[in-house]
User: What shape does this take?
Amino acid sequence: MSAYVLARVLPVPAAQFRDAIRDCAESASPRFALAELNSLLSDLSAGELRDAIAAPPPPGLSPFLENYIAAMVEYACATRAVAVPGWTRAIAPLSEPMFGSELQTLRLYLLTHSPPPFRVRNIFIDSTLGDRV
Assistant: This one.
């Protein structure tokens, strides 16, 4: 679909969410695109969040991106008391753990301090600075 048609059909938060996911998928190193997606989700009101996440991400994402995006959505829903969309449950957790740092000495810390939606998906990150995930 063209950008014009999508802009007319999707509410603004949903279009922003879809664009942010596209940026994650198109990036060679999605770290910054994921940070932008997190900022978007953090800035939405409960109603805007519900609108933004109603539709699942487009197909073709890597399992890591699917899980990371689903965990961010689940985390945002928990912080705003919004029902988690059903599409997140359809994404199987990663079979191998992924750590937010290559440093072996940080693994125990990451295992114990990662937010629950990420731990369930076998993603271990640190979110202590400003609750950014």
User: Anything to note?
Assistant: The chain is about 55% helix and 5% strand. Helices lie at 3-9, 12-26, 31-43, 46-53, 63-80, 107-113, 116-120. The CA atoms of residues 64 and 94 lie 7 Å apart. The beta strands are 98-99, 123-124.
